[in-house]
């Protein structure tokens, strides 16, 4: 009987074992060291990736943005920062940090250049979405860092690293920052830099924890605890705005869902709603309603639906269309088409 728990414990340990498939530590170290170098080929690849991402954001093309994220070499120095802290290698940490900052400067320069010379640079949904990260983006970055470090320590982890680069979206925020600089929009510039910074920070934090978990050998007897401490404090401070943005997003989504429910299940039961538009950020609701005859109390009645459901401080705009006028308009249009057909036969 006593052997059963031991067998189960051994089975679980073997099932989740990571050390047996891990490559030599020195090989992992050399791979990461090579990846943090930012010059020559990597510099050109970054420039191309930035231009591709800017074009993708400009035309709302997700495939172009994804391609740019796969092409870009920005992940190397970020992994280097987390890994160097995990093995207490101050030289590797300094080199990684220097190259990470260089990537930011180069990326913002090329993205700003693109938006300055491009006459069709406009604010698109894709572009704006990378200016306000939420707590969910932080989770993606952190889990991505764990997965990436796990993949790097294996023989063939390239596919996982590419997937992490796409999932964590490090390139697009730098394009948003470049757009903000080109258009002198401080909100987009700071928002893009903040999104990139928090993604990088938590990718590095995930990499650090996985390095510790895999028990990589320390390269220095002197642990750089003060750097690890500042790294942790910086992560907590960076997390505060992301949590706030996540809260705001949740409130807006709840407002959107509640208003849609009221329109589809309550207002539709009494009125024929042709179309509606909800702005959850500004709390404005626009309704196109068709009625058999003019209803002078329609605005009062519609607002009563929202008040009963405890939705207050909203701005409701109602466009009332009379069905008789709609039918008359259809008849006029039909006659116009018949007249055009008669003219053609002549």
UniProtKB/TrEMBL annotation:
Alphabetically list the UniProt keywords.
Answer: Membrane, Transmembrane, Transmembrane helix
Q: What is the lineage of its organism?
A: Bacteria, Pseudomonadati, Bacteroidota, Flavobacteriia, Flavobacteriales
Q: Which organism is this entry from?
A: Flavobacterium terrigena
Question: Which InterPro entries does the annotation name?
Answer: DUF389
User: Key word Protein transport present in the record?
Assistant: no
Write down the superkingdom of origin: Bacteria
A Pfam short name: DUF389
Task: Enumerate the transmembrane spans.
Answer: 43-59, 65-88, 100-122, 134-153, 160-182, 188-209, 230-250
Designated name of the protein: Uncharacterized hydrophobic domain-containing protein
